[in-house]
Design goal:
Order of helices and strands: EEEEEHHHEEEH
Number of helices: 4
Strand content: 25-35%
Radius of gyration: 20 Å
Oligomer: single chain
Structural class: alpha+beta
Strand order of the largest sheet: 1-2-3-5-4
Length: about 200
């Protein structure tokens, strides 16, 4: 069955003399592996340059629920990244964040909220000209929301301790030894505040 979906390239692995297997985080199908034949040939319809880390794709793919490796019918880069592949600071951030995403995203089912967040963040990074110093830190903090362990800040104003096991601020010392003392918990609150203020970015929640 054919599916139309957007995708984000995470990893490309050589396969045979002229083919590759590319792992793509897709909007409609989650993380999928696709084999693409003839990529290394001079007149290839899909070139290796289109499969660089965190490149954004518009795809039409064949999908079999029981298949481990799928095939692509059509592929194009959309939108085309203008600065990220060529700017050393941006490309370094992209390589780091790509590795984190590759290690973190495992589900082969759709997670459109996470996809929209990552897709929008890459677009923002590509277009931004300044204020990049803490982008990767803010991205990682926001990513934890979609991975399921974003710190609960509900009690942050009245809490003295931070429970590392449950990821929540607490007024009283947790039963386990995995916690931050009041001095360190306050420092964590301050760092989180500074991170939010240091980069002004609007990413879809």
């Amino acid at each position: 069955m054919l599916h139309k979906t957007r995708g984000i390239v995470l990893k490309t692995t050589d396969y045979g003399e002229s083919s590759v297997i590319v792992q793509v985080f897709t909007e409609k199908l989650g993380l999928q592996s696709y084999i693409i034949n003839g990529v290394k040939k001079p007149k290839a319809k899909i070139s290796r340059n289109m499969l660089q880390p965190l490149h954004l794709l518009d795809m039409v793919v064949y999908h079999k629920a029981a298949g481990n490796v799928q095939r692509i019918s059509e592929l194009k880069t959309a939108p085309v990244l203008q600065t990220l592949p060529y700017d050393i600071i941006k490309s370094s951030m992209a390589l780091f964040l790509n590795e984190v995403l590759y290690k973190s995203i495992k589900q082969q089912t759709a997670d459109e909220h996470m996809f929209d967040f990552v897709f929008s963040a890459i677009e923002w990074l590509d277009h931004q000209t300044d204020g990049l110093a803490n982008f990767h830190l803010l991205f990682l903090v926001k990513l934890t929301r979609y991975l399921g362990f974003y710190p609960d800040r509900y009690q942050v104003d009245n809490a003295d301790y931070f429970d590392l096991k449950d990821g929540v601020f607490k007024q009283y010392k947790p039963d386990s030894i995995l916690y931050l003392s009041p001095a360190h918990a306050k420092l964590r609150q301050f760092i989180a505040f500074k991170l939010r203020k240091s980069v002004i970015i609007k990413i879809k929640q």
